[in-house]
Amino acid sequence: MVDDPLDVFFDSVSSRTHTSPRRLVRTVRAAYPIGVPALILKSSTDRYGAAAGYAFHLGTPDVNLRRITSWLITNAGAKQENLIKLIGLLWKRHGREDVALAALLLANLDHNHLGTNPWDELEKHISRKEPAEALLLSIEEILRAGKQMPDKDKIRSWCQGKAIYGHLALMVLHADSVRGGRSSEGLEADIQAVNVPPGDSLLGRIKARLVTP
């Protein structure tokens, strides 16, 4: 029986690594390419990452990222505070895998225990300009994990804030509506006030759907 290379890597990592968010961020970067033959296409994935607004894109499959997430949470034990700090480091480094892993952590950490909120953490880390995919990844994972929608006051503050927060609000409301939610009701004026790129943009289409009866 051939050992799984990702499991072998996990077994080789010192338990001390889980006490340091900076050690963790280096460790997960080393884990991304393990057992991923598609990395022979690294030059094309790097170009994809640059075009999308990521620092890098290695092509790590979703199943591997979920295994890394599970390993991080299991080994963090009661000290999940380090994983909240890790999310900030991942988002700052901003590889495609980093953003996807941060989304999985945001969605699956025990925020009640930590005294945190996934939406507040997401808001804290996004920059002035973000790939739409990065925001959608986080939103979809948070909702898929059964976390509650942000309340109307939070969404209203996003709509009235910086452009990136307005775009976040549109995407959150759109994701909710796809699931049959009605969170946009009563927020029509706030949605209308959000500036979106001119022309037939994704955000423009989302905004139009949200305010159309």
Instruction: Sketch the topology as an H/E string, one letter per element.
Output: HHHHHHHHHHHHH
Question: Helix- and strand-based class?
Answer: mainly alpha
Helical fraction: 55-70%
Number of domains: 2
User: N-to-C terminal Cα separation, in Å?
Assistant: 59 Å
What's the overall average pLDDT, rounded? 89
Biggest sheet: strands, sense, closure? Answer: none
Instruction: Please give the number of β-strands.
Output: 0
Overall geometry: elongated
Any overview of this molecule?
The chain is mainly α and 213 residues long. The protein has two domains: 148 residues, no CATH class; 64 residues, no CATH class. Helices cover 63% and strands 0% of the residues. Helix 11 crosses helix 13. The longest helix is centred in the last third of the chain and has 16 residues. The protein is elongated, with a radius of gyration of 18 Å. The model has no long low-confidence stretch (mean pLDDT 89).
Topology:
Layout: H1 5-12, H2 21-31, H3 42-52, H4 62-76, H5 81-93, H6 96-108, H7 111-114, H8 118-125, H9 132-144, H10 152-159, H11 163-178, H12 188-192, H13 202-211
